[in-house]
Amino acid sequence: MVMLPLLKRDFPHLKIVVITEDIDADKVGFAIGNGAASILPYPLTTLKEQLQKVMVEGYYFPINIMEKFITSYKKINDSNTEMEQKEYRKPLHLLTRRECEVLQLLAEGKSNREVGQILYISEKTVKNHVSNILMKLKVKDRTKAVLLAIKKSWVYVS
């Protein structure tokens, strides 16, 4: 994992997939923060499907990995008691209501397909919403959008 920042710097368009037995919240946070497109737990049961998701979506994080990442992020930015007292508010000054719904589902680790199914919209419409969110929040990828949303208390993370 030490090589991640160097790989991302030298090959910014490379999709980095980390496969590890040791899924610890701090390592997950480090990997995502340094450009990993996916972190997969070893042993792999569905490697082909997971790699296809990375190629189609640009990223893929199983829900247990996202939970560890959120735990790591919370630990870095706030104590647990401060997080519980925060009021979650929608960024309606920046995003439409639908974009807020999409952002919340992204924070829950949902894929474009899953977001579309939940909101009864096409996957292409979800991609359009995600693109609009990234543009409006001035971030390059959905992970950074979720990080910003968590930091600003725009999404609820349990």
Polypeptide structure, described:
The protein is mostly helical. The protein has 2 domains: 3-77, no CATH class; 97-152, Winged helix-like DNA-binding domain superfamily/Winged helix DNA-binding domain (Arc Repressor Mutant, subunit A, Orthogonal Bundle). 58% of the residues lie in helices and 7% in strands. It is built from 9 helices and 2 strands, in the order αβαβααααααα. It has helices at residues 4-10, 25-33, 47-57, 63-77, 80-85, 97-107, 112-119, 123-137, 142-151, and strands at 16-20, 36-41. β1 (16-20), α2 and β2 form a beta-alpha-beta unit. α2 (25-33) crosses α4 (63-77) and α6 crosses α9 (142-151). The radius of gyration is 15 Å and the shape is globular. Residues 79-85 have low confidence and may be disordered.
Blueprint (SSEs and pairs):
Elements: H1 4-10, E1 16-20, H2 25-33, E2 36-41, H3 47-57, H4 63-77, H5 80-85, H6 97-107, H7 112-119, H8 123-137, H9 142-151
Parallel strand pairs: 1-2
Helix pairs in contact: 2-4, 6-8, 6-9, 7-8
Domain HTH luxR-type: 88-153
InterPro entries: Sig_transdc_resp-reg_C-effctor, Tscrpt_reg_LuxR_C, WalR-like
GO molecular function, one term: DNA binding
Tell me the structural class: mainly alpha
What's the number of extended β-strand segments?
Answer: 2
Q: For the terminal residues, how far apart are their CA atoms?
A: 27 Å
**What is the overall number of helices?**
9
Strand order in the largest sheet: 1-2
| Beta content | 5-15%
In terms of per-residue confidence, which ranges show pLDDT below 50 for 5 or more consecutive residues? 79-85
The rough form would be described as globular
Mean pLDDT: 79
Helix and strand string, N-terminal first? HEHEHHHHHHH
How many structural domains does the protein architecture include? 2
C-alpha-based Rg, rounded: 15 Å
Largest sheet: 2 strands, parallel
Helicity range of the residues?
55-70%
Keywords: DNA-binding, Transcription, Transcription regulation
GO molecular function: DNA binding
InterPro entries: Sig_transdc_resp-reg_C-effctor, Tscrpt_reg_LuxR_C, WalR-like
Protein name: HTH luxR-type domain-containing protein
